[in-house]
Every structure is written in C-alpha cells, then in structure tokens.
Amino acid sequence: MSTGVAITGMGIISAIGNNVSENYSSLLEGRTGISHISKIDTVHKGSIMVGEIEFTNAELEAKLGLSADNNYSRTALLGAVAAKEAIADAKITNIKDYRTGLISSTSVGGMDMTEKFYYDYLESEDNRKYIEGHHAGDSTEKIAEQLGIDQSLVTTISTACSSAANAIMFGARLIKTGKLDRVIVGGADCLSKFTINGFKTLMILSDTYNTPFDENRKGLNLGEAAAYLVLESDFLVKKEKKKVLGYVVGYGNANDAYHQTASSENGDGATLAMEKALAVAGLEPKDIDYINAHGTATGNNDLSEGRALIRVFGKEIPEFSSTKAYTGHTLAAAGAIEAVYAILSLQNNIIYPNLNFKTPMKEFSLIPQTTLKEKALNTVLSNSLGFGGNCSTLIFSK
Amino acid sequence: MEKVYINSIGSISAQKTFDNNDFLEEITTYEDNIIPVIEPNYKDFIPPAAARRMAKGIKMGVVASKIALEEANLTDIDAIITGTGMGCVRDSEKFVTAILDNNEQFLTPTSFIQSTHNTVAGQIALGIGCKGYNFTYVHSSVSFESALIDALMQLELKEAENILVGGVDESGEHTNAIHKLIQHIKPEKINSNELLNSKTAGAVFGEGANFFVLSNKKQDSSYAQVLGVKTFNTLAISDLLANLEAYLKENNLSATDIDVLISGNNGDIDYDNYYTELTNGPFKNTQQVVYKHLSGEFNTASAFGFWLGAKILKTQQIPSAVAINTIKTKGFEIVLLYNQYRGKNHSFTLLRRC
User: Fold this and answer.
1) What is the mean pLDDT of chain A?
2) Is A242 within 8 Å of chain B by CB?
3) Nearest chain B Cα to A202, which residue?
4) Interface probe, candidates B112, B114, B297, chain A, greatest A C-beta count within 10 A
5) Is B87 on the interface with A (CB under 8 A)?
6) What residue spans of A182-330 are helical by DSSP H?
7) Which residues are in the Beta-ketoacyl synthase-like N-terminal domain (chain B) (predicted)?
8) Is the pTM of this model over 0.90?
9) Long-range contact list for B96-99, CB < 8 A, 24+ apart?
10) pLDDT, tens digit, for every residue of A9-34?
11) CA of A382, closest CA in chain B: separation in Å?
12) A202 and B157 in contact by Cβ < 8 A?
C-alpha cells in the first residue's frame, strides 16, 4: 500500500452539527438533520425537505467577527467556519511557516445573494457589495483571507457533486509532487432557491426523508454544509511531530461520458474511478473495510453506483452505507463531508448506519449496513458522483 | 520529469482566430465596452440539432476543442481539464430570471443543467466518449492556469500522454449590466486601439474559448514547450518583482533571458500599474506584447494570451497589432506571460520554443 498523504486536521459544519464532535455524535445516535425548509424564502417552504444548518448568516458573521459591511455569501460563511476548525484541529499557529495552499470547491458560490438581489442591484446601490461575491472563486478567496493564506496557490474546483472529492485529490497530488508542504482542501455549498428549484425540475427531489439504496427510494434531499481537511507533507509531519488523523492513500476520477446529468446504468464512470483509486493506493478490493457510498437515493444514482460496486467488488462487497439520509446531499461539499466521516470511522472503528433503508432493490441483492457497527477498520473508500458524468473515489487509511 | 509541449491550439475569440492558418492578419476593431466573439460556422463542427440546444459557452468550448484535437490528430484524449470563471453564465441568468419572474413555478431543467460549471468539460467528454480524468477549475483569473498546473503535473509524471486543456467564458447580459454598475466595466465605449492607454477605471468585457492539447510527446504540429506556471492568490505590488525573480530563478532564468513579455493589462487605470512594474522595470528593454484590446477581459482571457505566446513561438512572428515596441523581431526563444485581475489572482507562465 502507498504511504499516502497525511491528514492532520479537519473541520465541518452540516445539518447534523456545527463541528466535528457534534457531527460524530449525530452519526452515532442516528440523528438526521433533514426537515422542512425553514430558512429560505421560497414557495417550497413546508413542502420540500432539506438539511439546513441552524445558524443564521448574522450568527455566522458574529462567529467569524466580520464587520457589518462584509459581503460574505452563506457559502463563504460556512466555508470559513469549517476551515478555521480544521486549522485549529491541526494546531497550526502560524500558517506562513510552510508553503500552504487552499483548494476549495463549490457549485452554488454566491448564488444565494445573487438570487436575492438580482433585480434590486439594478435599482439600488444598497446591496451591490455582493456582486463581486457571486463567482465561485470568491468564497475560496475569503476563506484564504480568514486563514491568512497569501501569495500562494489558491484555487477552486467545481465539478458538481464530486467537487470536494476532486479538491482533496488535487491537494493530495500537490503534496505528493512537492509543490506545497501543506494544503487545506474541502468544499462549501449553501442552500439556495437556485439549487432547490434546479433539482426540482430534474424531478429527483424526494418529498420525504431520503432512503438510499431502498427499492422505494423517491429521490434526494438537498443539504448545506462545508468541510475541510488539512493535508501535510511527510517532511512537515516528521519535523513538527504532527498527530496524523489518517491518510489519503488512493484517488481516482473518471468520466461516465454517458449523459449530461444521469449516470450510466452500468456505472462505467464509478467503476473506473474506484479501480483507479485502488491502483493508486496499491490495494485490492478485498483490502477495503468499509465503503461510504455516494448513495443520494435517486433512482438513477443508487442503481448505477450499486452496479459499479458489484463490478469492482464482486460478491465480496464490504459493509457499505450512505450518510446522505443524515445530512442531505450537500453537492460540492459532499466529498469533504464524507471524507471527515471516513476519518471518524477509521479513528473509532465505526460503520454508520444507512438510515431509512427497508426494502432491497430488485436489480441486485445489495443490502447496506443499517445499524451502527463496530469493526476494525484500516481502509475506507468514499465515492462522489456528479453531473457531467463526473465520478470520483477517495481511499483513506489509518 | 517529462517535458510538456503545446501540440495544438483552438481559439474562438473576438478576433477571427478559429482558423489555425491565420495569425491576426485581419484585426477587428471595436468601439464598445463589451465585445463578443467572432463565431465560426458552428454547423461545420456540430450537428445543427445538437448546436441549437447548446449554450454559447458549450458551443465555443466544444468547437475550440475540436479544432485543437483535429490539429493534434487525436480522436480521444487521456484527460479534459477546463477553466472557467463563470461557466455558462447566460443559463445561470436564465434560470434565476425564470425563478424570480414565475415565482418558482413552470421551470424547465435545461438552463439549470447548463449552468453547472463543469458542463463544458462534461459535454466535450460526452462528444468524444472520453472516460478519462475530467476537472473544471473556477477561480477567477487563475481558472485556466489552475487547469494548466494540474495538466503539467500529470504530463511531467507520465500519468497521461495527451491532455486537453482549455479556458472558456461567455458573456452574460445581466452580469455585464451589474458589472457596469460597480464600474468593473468602463462606463464609456472605447476604441480597441485606445483601450490600453485609457485613463479610466474598469475594463472592456469579452468572452472566448481557447483550448490546447498538451502532451509529453513532441510532434510536428507542436507550438512550444511549457516550462511552468505559478499562481498567487494575492501579491502586493511591492512584492511582485521579487516573486517574479524568484520564479524565474526556479527555472534557471533571469529577466534578461526573456525574449517576449506578454502582459495581461486591460486598460483599467486602477490596476494596470502592476504591469508597468514589469514593463518599465526589468523588462523595459524586452520585446513587449499585449492582447486584451483584441480579446476583451474575462476570467479566462489569459488563455488567449497563452494562445498568442504559442503562436509567436511557432511562427516566430509578432503581429503588429499586439507589439508595443519593436525591440526584437526574430529569434524568440522564451516567452513570459503575466496576468492578474483587479490586483488579485496573479499568474506567471513560461513558454519555450521547441
């Protein structure tokens, strides 16, 4: 097995908790963060279910100590909170000690403010400060500023629902090639009318709690979240005697090249991504102890991903579960959210239940892990599959 | 480490650049503060039925990539890596407008789907059946350079042999309107020939798609070698030269080794002083080239600069429309590109004749 890239810190904010320990408690207690929309001004309030974070923007601004004239979108606010937790967790006191970069991901960026002030911008000067906050790179720039990362490699990836997995992959490669000593990787996406209505038009939103890998699944619940990992080079880890939480040992990205939004029925892209990640890690399928599946609970994803799992693992599929029933599908943040959950799995030798599962799918005999399970875990595989046929797999080890 | 070459190019810009046999012989001059691309006949490249459904950004990206793949004589590629600041922004605008105007009712998914930032990279993959690595970087004026960094890492380490890399951005009506309100776009219409000497704030916005096949295998069609790319999220003007010198040194070069400096100045009086640090400083006696008066400013305009550098090195010619001095007229070996937007997201790119 390859030695991989060390993870020395992590931070998260999601519908099931405002930090790593709260998220972990919710995972153990089977507590879902899915409820009816309450915070966004939409006609779908009370009908569509999502995973919302409790804090209002004003509360997040206060938490970050921002002045009243700030132009942070909710994506930037969530991202900054999670990234700061990751830095504190890695016990970084002076971020300029080493060559440090930031690779963040988002799909919605500052769309929450754009949709709010879209026509208002033309009429009044009041909210024009948010115009510059629209583009996807803006939240990343703000997170870099919050962390004190300057004169460095800072960029943003947007590949729909696999974005954060790709940010982790790119960051790991930057460490491996010696381009950086340390890189903060992850993603952030807030909820917006744009995404809620977008997924609604695709008719893949569930009108109730999402049920990954269930025959009667009705679609996904969207969620908002942000999560970041600190990746550090072996040199830095040794020199600073850093505590290592886990390693990124494998990664792979492939394209389904099948349809602009849907996944191929046979899961070609997901199969390729998992195979590539195993090859990079120098692992065999039998070496994987737990799979945190993408498992969005759409008809299409779970069938495609399930078939890909069978293609890669054959009859010996390790325990697998999707945590989307806890958090909702957090889009560009999902890969980072689930990376944090994978590390927590490894640290605690715990497999999370795939909530809400009742009936196996008729196409195959795959049954996710439905109860909390203790098992000695050395490697966890995590899938993130997105629009544009974008399929990514990460493998983490102790 | 393997050397990396630009094996082919494909450009759709505000100039007629989609024919690789031309090199800015005919210049289109604009008198405006927003300039569009000169579009090829898309039907020559995409079936009309498919083209009708595609956003402009997708059409530009798909066609620019087809031109590049054809010139490199490839039908498939190991990876597709794109940069885009805003993605298909017209579809984002369309979907927001539909949400607001119809109170979230009667919506259709097409514009939502096309608004996804990786839609161009996804459509290119779909078009050629490429199941390889597929990434999209969306970070303002280093979107394209981020894609370049990623491609270089893979090619230098022989993880891939041929990678399609491109930058694409389309112009959107509402986006332009609001950027006029905050003076990121010049309030006045201005002649392209006067743009870079204007004494006013803001830029002239443009759009474009510039795609390249990068490879660790040199071939007859090769344009140049890519020596490296470096990006900086922030750089105070006082730190610019020291960082550039350090970067050149990493590549065993100094300012005097640079034959051509390609600057990304856009005529914005508030931020062009970054470029004059170079052009009036260590590169005062270097052949200097500019391009944003021809392309307009957009998040991936620097990919047009990259196209220009590749063309100069291959043809060993500098069209008069882009030269701001005539210090050197032949024997171009090394080109340095420098770009930033509004004082942020700086990049240095080094190309060498091959």
Assistant:
1) 97
2) no
3) B109
4) B112
5) yes
6) 193-201, 234-239, 268-281, 299-313, 324-327
7) 46-218
8) yes
9) B96/A111, B96/A114, B96/A115, B96/A118, B96/A194, B97/A118, B97/B174, B99/A115, B99/A193, B99/A194, B99/A197
10) 999 999 999 999 999 999 999 999 99
11) 17
12) no
The C-alpha atoms of residue B107 and residue B96 are separated, in whole angstroms, by 10
Residue of A36, A44, A134, A161 marked active site: A161
Residue A113 has what pLDDT?
Answer: 97
CATH T-level fold of B4-215: Peroxisomal Thiolase; Chain A, domain 1 (3.40.47)
For the cut 80, the answer to whether the pLDDT of residue A3 exceeds it is no
B345 touches chain A (CB under 8 A): yes
Residue of B nearest to A272 (CA): B131
Task: Of A356, A352, A353, A345, give the one whose Cα is nearest residue A379.
Answer: A345
| Neighboring chain B residues of A193 at a CB cutoff of 8 Å | 99, 104
Q: Is B331 on the interface with A (CB under 8 A)?
A: no
- Helices of type H across chain B: 48-53, 56-71, 89-101, 110-115, 119-128, 143-156, 173-181, 192-195, 237-250, 273-279, 292-295, 302-315
Burial of B44 (0-12, 13-18, 19+ CB in 10 A): exposed
DSSP state of A332: G
Give burial (CB, 10 Å; 0-12/13-18/19+) of B31: exposed
Alpha-helical (H) ranges within B165-209 are: 173-181, 192-195
Superfamily of domain B225-353: Thiolase/Chalcone synthase (3.40.47.10)
Q: Which residue do the tokens 């008729």 mark?
A: A362
Query: Is A26 in a helix, a strand, or coil?
Result: helix
CATH 3.40.47.10 maps onto chain B at: 4-215, 225-353
Question: Residue A303's pLDDT is what?
Answer: 97
Does ipTM surpass 0.95 in this model?
yes
Q: State the amino acid at position A317 in one-letter form.
A: I
| CA B223 – CA B10 distance, rounded (Å) | 12
Contact A151 B235 (CB under 8 A): yes
B177 contact A CB<8A: yes
Check residue A260 and give its pLDDT: 84
Q: H or E element: which one contains A138?
A: helix A136-147
From the CB of residue A28, how many other CB atoms can be counted at a distance below 10 Å?
14
Alpha carbon distance B243, B238 (integer Å): 10
Q: Is residue A159 scored above 90 in pLDDT?
A: yes
Which residue ranges form the domains of chain A, and what is each CATH number?
A: 5-239 (3.40.47.10), 248-397 (3.40.47.10)
In sequence order, the 6+-apart residues with CB closer than 8 A to the CB of A134 are: A73, A109, A110, A111, A113, A114
Q: Using a CB-CB distance cutoff of 8 angstroms, which residues of chain B are in contact with residue A387?
A: 113, 116, 118-119, 122
| Residues of B whose CB is below 8 A from A258 | 126
Query: What tokens does A211 get?
Result: 């049920």
A300 touches chain B (CB under 8 A): no
Looking at residue A1, what is its pLDDT? 60
Predicted local confidence at residue A2, as pLDDT: 65
What does the pLDDT read at residue A398?
A: 95
pLDDT in tens, chain B (354 residues): 999 999 999 999 999 999 999 999 999 999 999 999 999 999 999 999 989 889 999 999 999 999 999 999 999 999 999 999 999 999 999 999 999 999 999 999 999 999 999 999 999 999 999 999 999 999 999 999 999 999 999 999 999 999 999 999 999 999 999 999 999 999 999 999 999 999 999 999 999 999 999 999 999 999 999 999 999 999 999 999 999 999 999 999 999 999 999 999 999 999 999 999 999 999 999 999 999 999 999 999 999 999 999 999 999 999 999 999 999 999 999 999 999 999 999 999 999 999
Burial of A93 (0-12, 13-18, 19+ CB in 10 A): exposed
